Amino acid sequence: MAAKQKTLQDAFYETLKDVYYAERNSVRALRKAAKSAQADELKSAFETHAEESQNQVERLVQVFESIGKPARGKTCEAMQGLSSEMDEHLEDFQGSPAADAVLIAGAQAIEHYEISRYGTLKTWAAQLGYQDAARLLEETLAEEKKTDELLTQIAETINVQADEGEGEEQDAQPQKRRASGSRK
Ligand code: FE
Ligand code: FE
Ligand code: FE
């Protein structure tokens, strides 16, 4: 006979384990990003979110408790991939004018993964009648979205500086060769 059918409860618990692993991983990635960031505003955004993420890890422990299950992590290959990509890009672009822009891009990929996971988990928790879990997950989801928006906002300045080659010798003319319309 086939094994017992898996349920939405199982999916919820498995995904919770995934995000528990991913969240702990993101704390490390954010601390590293904070050390690597050049712009003060970006550095402090990463520091703030690293602290917030540490708190999100604690919040996940409360979610596990609220459903009466042990807090366990399960390797999240997506987060591993995203953070190793970020490391690789960091190395490639170290010291370049585009370094901070590249750092933001990597960090936003991580936030988007978290937003996807917490969005799903919150919705499943509500469906399953896990009211406390749903509320806790919603709190974290809001922080992830806020961080993503902040990074988008910081990127507006950073991208311009990256494109102008800030930090390099430049003459007073930031005019770019933009004549051919072939690029967006
Ligand atoms: Fe997080
Ligand atoms: Fe995952
Ligand atoms: Fe986050």
Question: What would you say this structure looks like, in words?
Answer:
With 184 residues, the chain is mainly alpha-helical. The protein has a single domain, classed as Ferritin (Up-down Bundle), CATH 1.20.1260. It is built from five helices and no strands. The protein has helices at residues 8-36, 40-66, 77-93, 99-128, 131-164. The longest helix is centred in the last third of the chain and has 34 residues, at 131-164. The radius of gyration is 20 Å and the shape is elongated. It starts with 7 loop residues before the first helix and ends in a 20-residue tail after the last helix. 29% of the residues are buried. One fe (iii) ion is lined by residues 26, 49, 53, 111, 114, 144, 147.
